[in-house]
Amino acid sequence: MTDDRRLAVLRAIVEDFVATREPVGSKALVDRHQLGVSPATVRNDMAVLEEEGYIAAPHTSAGRIPTDKGYRLFVDRLASVKPLSAAERRAIASFLDDAVDLDDVMQRTVRLLAQLTHQVALIQYPSLTRSAVRHVELVPLSSTRMLMVLIADTGRVEQRMLDTATAFDEQFVSEVRAHLNSAVDGQRFADVPARVAELPSSFPESSRPNVAVIVATLLESVIERPDERILLSGTANLTKFGADFTRSVLPVLEALEEHVVLLNLLGQATSPDTLTVTIGHENSLESLSATSVVSIGYGGGGDALAQLGVVGPTHMDYPGTIASVRAVSRYVGRILADG
Amino acid sequence: MTDDRRLAVLRAIVEDFVATREPVGSKALVDRHQLGVSPATVRNDMAVLEEEGYIAAPHTSAGRIPTDKGYRLFVDRLASVKPLSAAERRAIASFLDDAVDLDDVMQRTVRLLAQLTHQVALIQYPSLTRSAVRHVELVPLSSTRMLMVLIADTGRVEQRMLDTATAFDEQFVSEVRAHLNSAVDGQRFADVPARVAELPSSFPESSRPNVAVIVATLLESVIERPDERILLSGTANLTKFGADFTRSVLPVLEALEEHVVLLNLLGQATSPDTLTVTIGHENSLESLSATSVVSIGYGGGGDALAQLGVVGPTHMDYPGTIASVRAVSRYVGRILADG
DNA sequence: CTTGGCAGTCGGAGCGGCTGAGTGCCAATC
DNA sequence: GATTGGCACTCAGCCGCTCCGACTGCCAAG
Question: How many other β-carbons are positioned within 10 Å of the β-carbon of residue B45?
Answer without folding.
Answer: 23
